[in-house]
Amino acid sequence: MKQEWTSFKSIEGSLLWIYANQLGMYLSAEGISLTCMEPMLKIRRPDSPEPIYWKLNWEETELGDDILLLKEQDTPEPLNYESLEWTDQKHVITSSSFFLEQNEIKKVSGYGFKENGNEFLSAIVLEMDHRIISIEAGAVITIKVTTTAPADLGELLF
User: Fold this and answer.
1) How far is the C-alpha of 14 from the C-alpha of 42, rounded, in Å?
2) Which residues neighbour 109 within 8 Å (Cβ) at sequence distance 6 or greater?
3) 56 burial class (0-12, 13-18, 19+ CB within 10 angstroms)?
4) Whether residue 107 has pLDDT greater than 80
5) What is the pLDDT of residues 118-156, one digit of tens each?
6) Which letter does DSSP use for residue 104 in this model?
7) In sequence order, what are the residues at sequence separation of 6 or more whose Cβ sits closer than 8 angstroms to the Cβ of residue 7?
8) What is the sign, positive or negative, of the torsion defined by CA atoms of 25, 30, 31, 35?
9) pLDDT in the model for residue 71
10) Residue 23: pLDDT band by 50, 70, 90 thresholds?
């Protein structure tokens, strides 16, 4: 596993919330699809009261394949939020949000492809108790909430 991907596995056992400035939500027989640009994952690890934020973005390779990018940060920027220093909730985020009632991440997997001897991440899958959340790279990032594992995400990288 690549060194930069070890942070993905470190969120197993954490709680998850999803935010975006504009979050499109679509319900189908397969589950819920969320579409957005630059979604933010709020993650609270069980051993820390301080949340971390993962800003997700994408990039295109020279051959036109989409790769998923992650930036870990201490604040939910660029989302609209207010800092709270006097409470255990560090930030109040006033952007669109989505979360599951049972939001503990049980397992994290990464999928992608190999190109010119390099491995590229194109999707992550977060397994919860009764739901699976898959996040796929693209100009519009797609987040699917289903009860079954998604197919055709590429090669399992971690």
Assistant:
1) 10
2) 124, 125, 127, 156, 158
3) buried
4) yes
5) 899 999 999 999 999 999 999 999 999 999 988 889 899
6) B
7) 70, 72
8) negative
9) 92
10) very high
Exposed / middle / buried, residue 35 (Cβ in 10 Å: 0-12, 13-18, 19+): middle
Of 83, 82, 70, 8, the residue nearest 39 (C-alpha): 70
Provide the residue range defining the domain that includes 135: 3-156
DSSP code at position 106:
-
Tokens of 36: 């957005």
Q: pLDDT tens digit string along 91-100?
A: 888 889 998 9
Q: Shortest CA distance to 133 belongs to which of 54, 64, 34, 67?
A: 34
* Distance between CA atoms of residues 154 and 98, nearest Å: 26
* CA-based end-to-end distance of the chain: 6
How many domains does the chain contain in total? Answer: 1
Q: Structure tokens of 1?
A: 């596993």
Residue given tokens 């797609």 in the structure block? 142
Mean pLDDT along residues 22-40: 94
